[in-house]
Specification:
11 helices; single chain; mainly alpha; 2 strands; MetI-like fold
Length: about 270
């Protein structure tokens, strides 16, 4: 029994496993950055959709309706690649001589000097922005619906008390909107957390890629087969990790909903 405990302790605390545990920060940073960007794009998209100007409403509706229909993995791969090539195109305008560009026609980038090598940090930022753009469309739809759900009588009462339109908007409309929006925003957040499992597609060695590496059959010239295919065990650990994140997120959103509903009698919306 003691030898078994010593083996598992040594195995689960070796350098590779410590790197696996440390890679959790990639998932958390991507989720927080993506959530922040999603809220920013969501507020902007909802504002455009509710604008008094028809062109702005068209842009807002187009963003919400089109982006929601794009598969996450497709946009997750497209945006970082498109941004990377755009930067390389800009660099190539000054760094690549015309004769070199003509010689390397059909290759990308057109010269070695224009090649932009992204680090894990830069890929992580692009991943967070990609998540924000995608789930910002869902967030915008939720916020727009929540703005419409605020009773018009509340707004009329504010105007009757002499509040300006700006005061009515911020102190009543936006204030009450959050109570209706938070349940839907909770769903958007949980969907965004699930999508962080795509980080490995952007050359980021995150918890998913580490689990695949560590769980794969492990061979050593000195010891032979160290272990067989243990990926199911590592994926089970990831399952429990995301369940824990879901549980903590639900608790956090429940607390936010209680806070947003203080002093308001909205029945089930504040519960």
């Amino acid at each position: 029994m003691g030898d078994d405990i010593a083996f598992w302790w040594g195995y689960l605390t070796n350098g590779k496993h410590l790197s696996w545990y440390a890679s959790v920060h990639y998932t958390l940073i991507a989720a927080l950055l993506g959530g922040t960007c999603a809220l920013f794009f969501g507020l902007g998209g909802a504002g455009l959709r509710r604008s008094r100007f028809a062109p702005f409403r068209l842009i807002g509706a187009g963003y919400i309706n089109m982006v929601r229909g794009i598969p996450d993995v497709l946009f997750f791969l497209f945006f970082p690649l498109a941004f990377e090539q755009l930067v390389e195109l800009i660099i190539s305008q000054s760094a690549c001589p015309p004769d070199v560009v003509a010689t390397n026609a059909g290759t990308w980038p057109p010269c070695t000097a224009a090649n932009w090598f992204l680090s894990s940090t830069e890929y992580l930022i692009l991943a967070g922005v990609s998540l924000g753009i995608v789930y910002g469309a869902f967030t915008a739809n939720v916020i727009a619906g929540a703005m419409n759900a605020v009773p018009m009588g509340q707004l009329e009462a504010g105007r009757a008390f002499g509040l300006t339109e700006r005061q009515v908007f911020w102190r009543i409309h936006v204030r009450q909107m959050w109570v209706y929006a938070l349940p839907g925003l909770s769903n958007c957040w949980l969907l965004l957390i699930k999508s962080t499992s795509l980080l490995s597609l952007l050359q980021i060695v995150d918890i998913v890629r580490w689990a695949d590496r560590l769980g794969a059959p492990n061979f050593s010239r000195a010891a032979g087969l160290v272990h067989g295919d243990w990926r199911w065990g590592y994926y089970l650990a990831l399952l429990l990790f995301f369940i824990l994140l879901t549980f903590l997120s639900e608790k956090a959103f429940a607390a936010l909903t209680r806070w947003a509903g203080k002093g308001m009698t909205l029945g089930s919306a504040a519960g």
